[in-house]
Amino acid sequence: MKTSTAVAQPSTGIATRPEFWERFWQTAGIQSVVLFACAYFLYGYRPPLDASDDLLLTFYAGSRVRVLIASICGGLAVLNLMWFAATLRTTLADSGQGGWGAAATASSAALGAIVLLLFTVCAALAYAGAQSSAQVLRALNDATWAGLVVSSFPRAMLTMAAAFGLWRARLISNRMFALGVAAVVLLLIAGTTWAHGGFWAPDALYSRSIAPIVGALWLLMVSGVLLKRPPTARAAW
């Protein structure tokens, strides 16, 4: 009985090349921002803290399909955020800044866990909104706003890891580094938005819109830095 000794030849398609995957994941930050923006606009304005029973039921039961689609976009956005962090970590490690790369990995994991939990709660409320009591809807809706505030801390850490790591590696200018430090401060400030009402409430303008926009703009800037680096045949990809 003869046994085949032929060795399968590796595919030579473009998808088997490390350079392809490195370039592809260098765009993950941009993809993440686009998907988060889609989720944001699909959700619309979620019920504020201490919303009325009618408003909660109208939003979560009446906008069920829209909220669930937004949750899908949000989940894909988190996946791309993880790949962005992996690309950033690899870039920093190659530049001798592995410590900052590890910080980027840890902070992105924490941020991803919080954001996925928030999307999960919103999807669960939409999925079973009509069957849920008003007290449950209000408690979980308020919890999502609190989670948004708490997420400011891993967002700040991820921003700091990118700013200091790329600056120490001499991959960004002093001016861009200063913008990164400013973004870190603005995101940390967002973690203090615990007022019962007004501009500094968890569901108010700063926490809901300004801080996320700051984080998104910094993510796009870092993605631009990563895209300027030519892809290599790194075995890690």
Can you walk me through this structure?
This protein has 237 residues and is mainly α. Helix content is 72%, strand content 0%. It is built from nine helices and no strands. The longest helix has 31 residues, at 64-94.
Net shape: globular
Radius of gyration: 21 Å
- For the record, the count of structural domains works out to 1
Q: Could you say which structural class the secondary elements and strand pairing correspond to?
A: mainly alpha
- Mean pLDDT figure: 87
What is the straight-line distance between the termini? 40 Å
Element order: H for helix, E for strand: HHHHHHHHH
Helical percentage: over 70%
As residue ranges, the low-confidence spans are none
Please report the number of helical segments: 9
Q: What's the β-strand tally? A: 0
Provide the β-strand percentage band: under 5%
